[in-house]
Design goal:
Layout: H1 2-23, H2 29-35, H3 40-43, E1 47-51, H4 66-69, H5 84-91, H6 100-106, H7 114-123, E2 128-134, H8 160-170, E3 174-179, H9 184-187, H10 224-228, H11 237-257, E4 262-265, H12 274-291, E5 297-300, E6 309-313, E7 325-330, H13 349-361, E8 364-369, H14 380-395, E9 410-411, H15 415-421, H16 427-438, E10 457-462, E11 465-470, E12 476-480, E13 496-499, E14 508-510, E15 515-519, E16 529-534
Helix pairs in contact: 7-8, 11-12, 13-14
GO molecular function, one term: alpha-L-fucosidase activity
Keywords: Glycosidase, Hydrolase, Signal
GO cellular component, one term: lysosome
């Protein structure tokens, strides 16, 4: 009997320790995907803030692809960079000698306070924070062992990702990074060109420089080829493979050295194919081994990876999606710039809030970029917008965080198109708007878009409550066919409707065909108004 008891104890010890041991096993991407579930922290967050910020904010003009466009006398269709070449010559010098490598050295980020930024972003309602690990300029904003052109070695001489990670943990914010680096070779090709006219005609730009050219200069010991890549003529298949291998080493370090909750690739599918899949596998295995589960997110423009969050650039889904997705946008431009004619804001607090409501109603998150100045601070105008967004989010938080879609995402849809159909807008312009709406990437509504009608709404649910966002409210009655008792959605008999942020009585009447609601003149603010509807679910 005593012998059997010992056997039983040993069996239980072995059985209970098995899960812990199995956590140490490295699983394949397919094995990880088979049991992966999107973590609740992400699906319930609904709103995140990103800083698309790096050395390309150092020049005050030249568009978001400054590093590429400063080498192009004519940017052709890439009009957002039309000022880069002239601005660089005037501000820094000619790119035959003073190139982007020198801009990197000028960038100091001397007022960057990661604690203050993360604390502020949390205060305006963001549930997670994302920082740029690298852009197409092939410069790492982290302490990279495998790439000397990084923010610790030059420029700010700070581990920007490390400091943001520490601050995010301090303020209990989920933290992630975005990587945009896998297209740098083609993106950098203009750095190997030369002027086509003038005194520098035919003289190669500094992309052709070698480590020998740096002797006695500030960049002595650094090889420009590590930043720009080799000249295109020297890029053998073996060299291309070495670039991919280096990418893998750098990004493996990124996902293992730093505790990331979120990894976002700016591109289609895995960067460099299997190299990107290997890094993603390492990332998920690390989270699984550290936390006992994969409480992390991988995002990107993937075409057939159900384990990833679908990323839609400057746009949103046109319907409710069964899986988590994110729409990304920025208030003005991706990197902060002051180009002539480029200071107009694409978004205000109003359009950000309309976008948030629309994305949430379709099971999506909004990731909003804040365009930090080159010194690491928030532009005053953008902070004012964020303050208003934050106040609205805090007022209406119950309809946002942990919300789920209803049976349909809205009612009285396409109200702005209906108004335009009865206006003097040309048929071609109207068709273009309809086509834009049906697409995803770059279909976002901005300050330049026609206003919503006063009766267009979006829905979310939370528990047994239906929330209704009236996007462009105006005093008077609105009719909502989807909330009629005999509509296709079959809502229940409404027992109460309350306007969030106010205790005034809301007048309404529900019959078989519609709900008629009287929008009060006095509302909590001038932005979208949210109603709490009881009994409908």
């Amino acid at each position: 009997m005593e012998f059997n008891k010992h056997i039983l104890i040993l069996f239980l010890i072995g059985f209970l320790s098995f899960p812990a041991l199995s956590q140490d096993k490295e699983l394949s991407w397919e094995e990880l995907s088979a049991t992966y579930e999107f973590p609740a922290w992400y699906t319930e967050a609904r709103f995140g803030i990103w800083v698309h910020w790096g050395a390309q904010t150092e020049p005050m003009q030249g568009g978001g692809w400054y590093a590429r466009h400063m080498y192009m006398e004519d940017v052709k269709h890439e009009k957002w960079g039309r000022n880069a070449y002239a601005y660089h010559n005037k501000t820094y010098g000619h790119p035959t000698e003073i190139g982007y490598k020198d801009v990197l050295n000028e960038w100091k980020a001397d007022k960057l306070d990661t604690d203050a930024l993360v604390s502020y972003f949390k205060s305006v309602g963001a549930k997670y924070f994302v920082a740029l690990a690298n852009h197409h300029d092939h410069f790492d904003n982290f302490n990279s062992t495998y790439h000397p052109w990084n923010s610790v070695n030059l420029g700010p001489k700070r581990d920007i990702i490390g400091q943001f990670e520490k601050s995010s943990k301090k303020h209990n914010m989920r933290f992630g990074v975005s990587s945009h680096d896998d297209r740098f070779l083609g993106w950098w090709e203009p750095a190997f060109g030369a002027d086509t006219s003038g005194p520098y005609k035919g003289i190669p730009y500094d992309g052709h420089m070698t480590i020998e050219d740096g002797k006695g200069k500030w960049w002595e010991g650094l090889d420009p080829a590590d930043l720009y890549g080799l000249p295109p003529a020297k890029r053998t298949p073996e060299y291309i493979e070495s670039v991919k291998e280096n990418w893998k080493l750098r990004h493996t370090e990124l996902v293992t050295k730093y505790d990331l909750d979120y990894l976002w690739f700016d591109g289609y599918n895995f960067p460099y194919g299997d190299y990107g899949k290997t890094v993603s596998t390492t990332y998920f295995n690390k989270k699984r081994q550290s936390n006992g589960k994969i409480d992390a997110v991988l995002a990107g423009k993937f075409s057939s990876e159900p384990t990833t969050v679908k990323d839609i650039e400057r746009g949103g889904a046109s319907e409710i999606l069964a899986f988590p997705w994110q729409g990304i946008t920025t208030l003005r431009t991706w990197f902060y710039k002051e180009d002539e004619g480029g200071l107009d804001y694409r978004h205000s607090a109003r359009t950000v809030i309309e976008t948030l409501a629309d994305y949430n109603s379709k099971n999506g998150n909004l990731v909003l970029n804040v365009e930090l100045l080159r010194d690491g601070t928030i532009p005053t105008t953008q902070k004012l917008i964020l303050d208003d967004v934050g106040a609205w989010i805090h007022l209406n938080s119950e309809a946002i965080y942990a919300s789920k879609p209803w049976k349909i995402y809205g009612d009285n849809l396409d109200s702005y198109l209906k108004v335009l159909e009865n206006s003097s807008i040309g048929e071609a312009d109207l068709e273009a708007l309809k086509k834009q709406k049906s697409e995803e990437h770059f279909n976002e509504r901005t300050l330049a878009s026609p206003a919503y009608g006063s009766d267009e709404v979006r829905f979310t649910t939370n528990g047994d409550v239906l929330y209704m966002f009236v996007l462009n409210p105006a005093e008077g009655e609105i009719e909502l066919p989807t909330l009629g008792l005999k509509s296709k959605q079959k809502p229940g008999k409404i027992s109460a409707i309350e306007m969030i942020g106010s205790d005034q009585k809301i007048e309404y009447k529900q019959d078989n065909n519609k709900l008629v609601l009287t929008m009060p003149a006095n509302r909590p603010n001038t932005l979208a108004t949210v109603f709490r509807i009881k009994g409908a679910l």
